[in-house]
């Protein structure tokens, strides 16, 4: 088994001020998990459960209060090194905010290439950019080089963001709600693309989402977060189809399911009839 | 039993008169029956919100309804042509016959007024004869109806959670006992568990008060679960309309099938989904 991205005993406290008093919010409480190459781990939970904080800690945008991020079994420095960035990349939620409107598409992908592979010639960089664009199904790649983010749709932008994450040769990708801002009919396409790339490159993916259905189909393992802690973990199908923890059951219950067509209406009617009787 | 129609749109077209003009809604006919939940689904930019605005005559320039008519069939048997009402009639009509829960409306409460003042505003405008005590009682009743403790009447919006604010907006829309409520993405920005609670509340209130709902969202699985009928919109047209069962089990239009396949099933088979990683 070649290396893995691991977090061990992660804690993150935020100090909340309320006038003179201050309270401590445990945003992440003792979280440990491993992302292996070729595998997808989904982190699911509601807003405020701490899932994005974990993503930010892994991306070194946030310092944990205690605990470690390990890469290939070795502790990583608090501040990200070039080597760490080359291996661990992020895809953010909002493709409208994560691309610089001032720069062309080629600039966005060229930069990580130049930074992490200074030995490449201009010609080689160009070729690599086109190749990366085509890998994320923006074909022909050369047609996108000089375009700017505002000329692309949300789905196309998110593809650019994925290409950018792959550019340095990343082995691990942290995708924080990568499709929640996209139109429904292209969400599956973007997730399928990510899955295809993962298979081809042997990527380890941490997929952060609130959507149980895509978490189930897209990942091997699911971690359910509630108020900073992982309350349930296991094989994806197992967690969704046979949830053990109360909170997982509640989430599962709350997710829309077309198979339960009309059930809510009937249930409400029964309840009202019962109340009236 | 088939209920009578309560709101009918016939051949409605709405254009945004910009350069070049955008035909946001094209020749749409839609009937809402008394007491039913009609789901309106489609992706961003398909015209679903524009259509809802048109049905309530809320369109603002540059949007213009270029053709078609919208008729409201009042409970007492009279028909009201929404498009030709004068300003005063329109003022009376809105909110008391057809009310609306706007998109992102949990952020549309006035931050410097407490909930009581904002709810009472509806009554001072539409039922000026109602005394203060009556207004107070009615406001408390409304909050109770949507599952918010009436003691929160004196709270300001920032003291309430997103779900509670959304419930207050629904209470406001219920204030005049409307026959139709148009809900534009009423729960989209909320967490699933909170969303569920609100949907359940809407279903309960519908049973109790008998209003009809136009429920607009892109979340097709949710619509299938709760609606009686569903209309699928694309590029300003309704591509398919039918009972929720039919849309789910026997969709006719390719686009409906495409939309359905965009939502992987929570418990069923994988569908169009490929999965990477170790088998």
Write a compact overview of the structure shown.
Chain A contains ten helices and ten strands.
Can you characterise this structure?
The complex is a heterodimer of chains A (277) and B (279). With 277 residues, chain A is of the alpha/beta class. Chain A has a domain at 5-97 and 172-255: Rossmann fold, CATH 3.40.50.300. Chain A contains ten helices and ten strands. Chain A has helices at residues 51-58, 82-87, 105-116, 122-135, 154-166, 184-201, 212-218, 236-241, 246-254, 263-276, and strands spanning 5-18, 21-35, 40-44, 66-71, 74-75, 88-91, 172-176, 204-209, 221-226, 229-235. In chain A, strands 6-7-8-3-9-10 form a six-stranded mixed beta sheet, sandwiched between helices. In chain A, helix 3 packs across helix 4 and helix 5 (154-166) packs parallel to helix 6. Chain A is globular. Chain A starts with a strand and ends with a helix. The model of chain A has no long low-confidence stretch (mean pLDDT 90). With 279 residues, chain B is α/β, with parallel strands linked by helices. Helices cover 33% and strands 25% of the residues of chain B. Chain B contains nine helices and ten strands. In chain B, strands 6-7-8-3-9-10 form a six-stranded mixed beta sheet, with helices on both faces. Chain B has a four-stranded antiparallel beta sheet with strand order 2-1-4-5, with helices on one face. In chain B, helix 6 links the parallel strand 7 and strand 8 (212-217). Chain B is globular and about 55 Å long. The N and C termini of chain B lie far apart (52 Å). The model of chain B has no long low-confidence stretch (mean pLDDT 88). Chains A and B meet through helix 6, helix 7, helix 9 and helix 10 of A and helix 6, helix 7, helix 8 and helix 9 of B.
């Amino acid at each position: 088994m070649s290396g893995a991205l691991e977090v061990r005993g992660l804690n993150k406290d935020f100090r909340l001020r309320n006038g003179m008093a201050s309270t401590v919010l445990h945003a992440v409480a003792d979280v440990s998990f491993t992302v292996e190459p070729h595998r997808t781990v989904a982190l699911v939970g509601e807003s405020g459960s701490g899932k994005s904080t974990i993503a930010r800690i892994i991306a070194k945008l946030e310092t944990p209060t205690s605990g470690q991020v390990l890469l290939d079994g070795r502790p990583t420095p608090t501040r990200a090194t070039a080597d760490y960035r080359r291996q661990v990349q992020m895809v953010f939620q909002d493709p409208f905010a994560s691309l610089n409107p001032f720069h062309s598409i080629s600039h966005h992908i060229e930069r990580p290439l130049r930074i992490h592979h200074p030995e490449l010639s201009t010609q080689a960089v160009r070729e690599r950019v086109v190749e990366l664009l085509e890998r994320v199904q923006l074909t022909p790649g050369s047609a996108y080089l000089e375009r700017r983010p505002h000329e692309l749709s949300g789905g196309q932008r998110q593809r650019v963001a994925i290409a950018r994450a792959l550019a340095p040769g990343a082995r691990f990708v942290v995708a924080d709600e990568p499709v929640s801002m996209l139109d429904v009919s292209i969400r599956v396409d973007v997730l399928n693309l990510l899955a295809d790339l993962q298979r081809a490159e042997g990527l380890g993916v941490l997929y952060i989402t609130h959507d149980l259905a895509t978490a189930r189909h897209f990942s091997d393992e699911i971690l359910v977060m509630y108020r900073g802690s992982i309350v349930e973990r296991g094989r994806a199908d197992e967690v969704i189809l046979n949830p053990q923890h109360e909170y997982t059951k509640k989430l599962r219950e709350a997710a829309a399911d077309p198979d339960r067509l009309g059930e809510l209406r009937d249930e409400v009617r029964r309840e009202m009839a019962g109340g009236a009787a | 039993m088939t209920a009578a129609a309560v709101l009918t749109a016939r051949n409605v077209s709405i254009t945004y008169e910009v350069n070049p003009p955008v035909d946001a809604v094209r020749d749409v006919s839609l009937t809402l029956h008394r007491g039913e939940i009609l789901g309106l689904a489609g992706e961003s930019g398909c015209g679903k919100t524009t259509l809802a605005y048109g049905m309530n005559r809320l369109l603002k320039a540059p949007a213009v309804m270029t053709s078609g008519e919208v008729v409201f069939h009042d409970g007492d048997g009279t028909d009201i042509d929404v498009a030709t009402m004068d300003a005063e009639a329109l003022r009376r009509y809105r909110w008391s016959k057809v009310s609306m829960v706007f998109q992102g409306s949990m952020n549309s409460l006035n931050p410097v007024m407490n909930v009581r003042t904002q709810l009472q505003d509806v009554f001072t405008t539409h039922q000026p004869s109602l005394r203060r005590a009556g207004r107070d009682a009615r406001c408390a009743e409304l909050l109770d109806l949507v599952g918010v403790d009436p003691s929160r009447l004196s709270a300001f919006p920032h003291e309430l959670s997103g779900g509670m604010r959304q419930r207050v907006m629904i209470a406001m829309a219920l204030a005049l006992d409307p026959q139709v409520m148009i809900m534009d993405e009423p729960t989209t920005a909320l967490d699933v568990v909170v969303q569920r609670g609100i949907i359940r509340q809407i279903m309960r209130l519908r049973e109790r008060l008998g209003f009809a709902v136009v429920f607009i969202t892109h979340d097709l699985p949710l619509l299938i679960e709760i609606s009686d009928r569903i209309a699928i919109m694309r590029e300003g047209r309704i591509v398919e309309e039918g009972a929720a069962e039919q849309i789910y089990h026997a969709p006719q239009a390719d686009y409906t099938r495409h939309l359905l396949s965009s939502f992987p099933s929570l418990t069923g088979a994988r569908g169009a989904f490929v999965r990477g990683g170790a088998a």
